[in-house]
Amino acid sequence: MYKSFLLFFIVLASCTTPKSFSEKALNDTFITLDGKSIQFKEIIEVNKGKKILVNVWASWCKDCIVSFSGLKQLQIQYPGVVYVFISSDRSVFRWKKALEKYNLKGNHYYMSKGMDSDFGDFLNSNWIPRYLVINENGFLDLFKAKRITDSSIVEALKK
User: Is the pTM of the predicted complex or chain greater than 0.70?
Assistant: First the structure.
């Protein structure tokens, strides 16, 4: 009985989602539109006191592109939310070209190491798009949503 309880507890603990970012993820560096480096913790700090929806995407990702119309609807419904787009594109050129093409409004950053970065490791996912919601205190209210239509996104934005 004890072994069964212990196994259940270990499985349950491994399934829990993080409520805060790892130090490595916070210290990971991204590229801004003007070519400067910025750490993820700076992105959070600049927007502290505001709800943040993070969209991890790439221009080559069909699911990412299809989701933009739904994301733009969220931007209309929740104008007080900060929208952070993190691209795992293969080049800065493709990233910037896609931003122009899809007219994405928000704060844009490029992951030069893509998903093979400390931030990518923290996400523990090989799938994009990926959506996270960070609350006004910098903690994760939503860690893992793969579709813009996921009801947990709206639930987290309403908190």
Answer: yes
